[in-house]
């Protein structure tokens, strides 16, 4: 056997690139490739459970809620597919092609983006029936940009940013705009979407990192002191990627041009910054006090307190842009040639071994790397993890939202 990349447990091979982070839920990893194939893969073995193919480009990461997988495509469709079987339940068409991103799902409603040269809208769709509830039109609000960035929901408010550099807050019940804030420099080639933490939005943009208020607060000096839609602080130096991640009093963000990882105080000051090997091309993930960032060939591990680089795991020369998703000590990373599962805890080495499979539909895809000791002998991790992004929540007693991706728990 030929020695391969250390710590790689398995490699699910695809013919086309994987541009977006996978979604890991219920022992399965859901992801799409550039050819329009949506895969469900077992996280332990790397074997294919099903593949749902569309003759369209799948936009963003799939969203898995209540046993259904929701995703958007470049031809203006939103799909609902059974997470267990891969059978289509419904599809919704916005009526035109355009630039889209992943949907958001909350309280039985799917919120999807529809954008083209002449029309830019948000559609609210019944998650069970696939019927439209309301639409929000950007052009009616004097925004000439489109929406190509993921949506976030908290406290019945939908937040998103347009390519025109406008941040919106929209009521999820009515589709009416609560407020907007413009002036952000957004790149159409990079996703830039809000992370919501403790009532504040953090957005990485082409020209810096911003903290914006979302709530109206009472004050002893006035009947109502508002912070909603107002910038609390900004670090306007560098091209910061989204989403950011946080650990209580620290905000972590990667800067694209110089390839640096920053740790900010929630008040805006810099705690530390560290240069990473080559340019960092992914947003950071925080798990158990450690920061994980992937570039085009490595998974880089940094101590969250000191900024010290702890480890560089060589994985492949063909990694892509999606941030690693970490669940139960395993990092899942997409690339030019498929999805890899990487053990971030074990000190063992792995060796190249093509495992024979009794399943016809997975034999040509999965390359598994055997460990010196059986994975079945590993101690089970019983920590609480976010079902949306896989972030560990063990540091928090009763979390109401995920501090990494902002998802409601």
Automatic annotation (TrEMBL):
User: Which InterPro entries does the record cross-reference, listed alphabetically?
Assistant: PQQ_b-propeller_rpt, PQQ_rpt_dom, Quinoprotein_ADH-like_sf, WD40/YVTN_repeat-like_dom_sf
Q: Which residues cross the membrane?
A: none
Biased composition regions of type Basic and acidic residues, renumbered to the chain: 352-371
In residue numbers, the region (Disordered) covers 351-375
Checking Pfam families in the record gives: PQQ_2
- Superkingdom of the source species: Archaea
Pyrrolo-quinoline quinone repeat domain residues are 7-93, 103-206, 223-309
Q: List the PANTHER family hit by this protein, alphabetically.
A: CELL SURFACE PROTEIN, OUTER MEMBRANE PROTEIN ASSEMBLY FACTOR BAMB
Q: Report the protein name in the record.
A: Pyrrolo-quinoline quinone repeat domain-containing protein
